Automatic annotation (TrEMBL):
<dbReference type="GO" id="GO:0000139">
    <property type="term" value="C:Golgi membrane"/>
</dbReference>
<dbReference type="InterPro" id="IPR000863">
    <property type="entry name" value="Sulfotransferase_dom"/>
</dbReference>
<feature type="domain" description="Sulfotransferase">
    <location>
        <begin position="74"/>
        <end position="398"/>
    </location>
</feature>
<keyword id="KW-0325">Glycoprotein</keyword>
<dbReference type="GO" id="GO:0005975">
    <property type="term" value="P:carbohydrate metabolic process"/>
</dbReference>
<dbReference type="InterPro" id="IPR027417">
    <property type="entry name" value="P-loop_NTPase"/>
</dbReference>
<keyword id="KW-0735">Signal-anchor</keyword>
<keyword id="KW-0812">Transmembrane</keyword>
<keyword id="KW-0333">Golgi apparatus</keyword>
<dbReference type="GO" id="GO:0006790">
    <property type="term" value="P:sulfur compound metabolic process"/>
</dbReference>
<keyword id="KW-0119">Carbohydrate metabolism</keyword>
<protein>
    <recommendedName>
        <fullName>Sulfotransferase</fullName>
        <ecNumber>2.8.2.-</ecNumber>
    </recommendedName>
</protein>
<keyword id="KW-1133">Transmembrane helix</keyword>
<comment type="similarity">
    <text>Belongs to the sulfotransferase 1 family. Gal/GlcNAc/GalNAc subfamily.</text>
</comment>
<dbReference type="Pfam" id="PF00685">
    <property type="entry name" value="Sulfotransfer_1"/>
</dbReference>
<keyword id="KW-0472">Membrane</keyword>
<keyword id="KW-0808">Transferase</keyword>
Length: 425
């Protein structure tokens, strides 16, 4: 029997949809989605939000979707891609005493729904992932951390887990009352120490800690474009502010080659041999540029739905002038920047570069020197290819293309042009 590729894809999709539906069904009533006055707010394949409206509404009357004071909370999203400095920006928020921070919770959605297709660009996969992601983000901004449990493997028992992705990156999850391994004087707990010393994470306590904080910040690297978030941004129950972080795609490529050694193995071969492997997965680069272009074009065209809710930050500007940029970010958020944020910047943007190499998602130390160090690591061929592929977005973001290997390696000449992106207010 012939099994066409279309049938295979359909089968795969059906199984994802079934898993997702199962997850939705398993979640208890408080997570039911209430009808929202926004046509964009569509879920999965005509999914849960189009379920019986009567039942939906009853659920909503019984259980208010969010019990917090919406006019009070700011829902901060750091929208980025891997190796663009998002951990650094996440930390700038994490250090603030009034902010509850979560590091990439969508990791769990992806590993559950599309484990083998981590770089899938299949449009239907993408829709499933986005629908699920938006639902999860909505819940998390409301401090409904139980909703996340549906995606954690193995499934948490009695609302406790030691499998929350990068739990140690969140200050609130490493300190009292969520974790009692450290006292209030242990100001900066290292991520690894938190994971080692804190007992399993009690999700009930974590959710309480979230509610205690005035604001919630989430780092997201698994949403391609700002346009994909429109439904959330327009959701009247939320008060979203998006900080979109971009970086020179040539720098992203270089950093990924160093960091994700298996996935980017062929790129390393290209660099080492000077020959582009025939089976190189070019989408690893083109996707970054397409997503940036889509996002930035949307963001900078100032659509009404983003008014006051979108800020574009270049990683390079942040590296050169971390304190000033951070103040601008807090200005945009409308929050006072506290002392601990300033102190954290001071200890983490100077000095030893070795620490940044210590682990995969380390934040940037000695950040200014790092911003253009990719120029010494990529071959001119690779840079030329990247420039051809990404020329539009390079231009739009103010990154200068080089015309020769000499120019590339001449560090007295910066490739980052001065450019101001005023938040749209
Ligand atoms: C919500 O917060 C605002 C600002 O803090 C306050 O003025 C308002 O009274 C609060 N509303 C409720 C219902 O608590
Ligand atoms: C969950 O709690 C119940 C009741 O306290 C207990 O009997 C059970 O062993 C717990 N399960 C796990 C996996 O800890
Ligand atoms: C988690 O914390 C809650 C609230 O303090 C408590 O009632 C519950 O027993 C804790 N769960 C476990 C498994 O210890
Ligand atoms: C590097 O660029 C600077 C500024 O354009 C130029 O003056 C210098 O001669 C260049 N150095 C080399 C080695 O090409």
């Amino acid at each position: 029997m012939q099994c066409s590729w279309k049938a295979v894809i359909l089968l795969a999709l059906a199984s994802i949809a079934i898993q997702y539906t199962a997850i939705r069904t398993l979640t208890s009533k408080p997570f039911q989605l209430c009808p929202v006055p926004s046509p964009q707010n569509c879920g999965l394949l005509g999914g849960p939000e189009t379920e019986s409206p009567i039942e939906g509404r009853a659920g909503c009357d019984e259980y208010p979707y969010f019990s917090f004071n919406a006019s009070r909370k700011t829902h901060i999203m750091v929208l980025a891609t891997t190796r663009s400095g998002s951990s650094f920006v996440g930390q700038l928020l994490n250090q603030h005493a009034d902010i509850f921070y979560l590091f990439e919770p969508l990791y769990h959605v992806q590993t559950t729904l599309i484990p083998r297709l981590s770089h899938s660009r299949n449009a239907a996969d993408r829709r499933v992932m986005l629908g699920a992601s938006r639902d999860l983000l909505r819940s998390l901004y409301g401090c409904d951390l139980y909703f996340l449990e549906s995606y954690i493997k193995p499934a948490p028992a009695n609302h406790t887990t030691d499998k929350l992705f990068r739990r140690g990156a969140s200050r609130a999850l490493c300190s009292l009352p969520v974790c009692d391994a450290f006292g209030p004087t242990d100001a900066n707990v290292e991520e690894g120490d938190c994971v080692k010393k804190c007992a399993s994470l009690n999700m009930t306590l974590a959710a309480d800690a979230c509610r205690e904080k005035r604001h919630v910040a989430i780092k997201v690297v698994r949403v391609p474009e700002i346009g994909d978030l429109r439904a959330l941004v327009e959701d009247p129950r939320l008060n979203i502010k998006v900080i979109q972080l971009v970086r020179d795609p040539r720098g992203i490529l270089s950093s990924r080659i160093e960091t994700f050694r298996d996935t980017y193995r062929l790129w390393r071969i290209w660099r080492a041999t000077g020959r582009r492997p025939y089976n190189l997965d070019l989408s690893q680069l083109t996707v970054v540029c397409e997503d940036f272009l889509g996002s930035v074009s949307t963001g900078l065209s100032h659509p009404h739905w983003l008014k006051g809710k979108y800020m574009l930050v270049r990683y390079e500007d942040l590296s050169r002038n971390p304190l000033l940029k951070t103040m601008e970010i807090y200005d945009f958020l409308g929050l006072p920047m506290d002392k601990s944020v300033e102190e954290w910047i001071q200890t983490n943007t100077r000095g030893s570069t070795e620490l940044s190499a210590k682990h995969k998602y380390g934040t940037v130390r000695d950040s200014a020197a790092n911003a253009e160090s990719w120029r010494l690591k990529l071959s001119y061929d690779m840079v030329e290819y990247t420039q051809a592929t990404c020329h539009k977005v390079l231009h739009q973001l103010g990154y200068k293309a080089v015309k020769s290997a000499e120019e590339l390696k001449n560090m007295s000449l910066s490739l980052v042009q001065d450019k101001t992106f005023v938040p749209f207010s």
